[in-house]
Design a protein that fits this description.
69 residues; 2 helices
Length: 69
């Protein structure tokens, strides 16, 4: 039987385990069924999450509104 040395790594940073992406807040709204269907299909076709489709659309609307000010 051979004995192997094992190394134990301890983290010293308090940042470990914290999310690296910005925190988001869950938000619910109501949409017509045909919009929900379109969002889901678009998400599958683009291989992204459905909320990413909605976020992209809202950001585009924000950009458009900022340009018109």
């Amino acid at each position: 039987m051979s004995t192997q040395a094992t190394e134990v790594h301890k983290t010293t940073s308090r940042e470990v385990g914290r999310p690296t992406t910005p925190l988001v807040r869950k938000y619910t709204t109501h949409l017509p069924p045909e919009m929900v269907k379109w969002i889901k299909i678009e998400a599958v076709e683009r291989e992204v999450k459905d909320y990413q489709i909605v976020e992209e659309a809202i950001r585009a609307l924000q950009f458009k509104a900022a340009l018109s000010r």
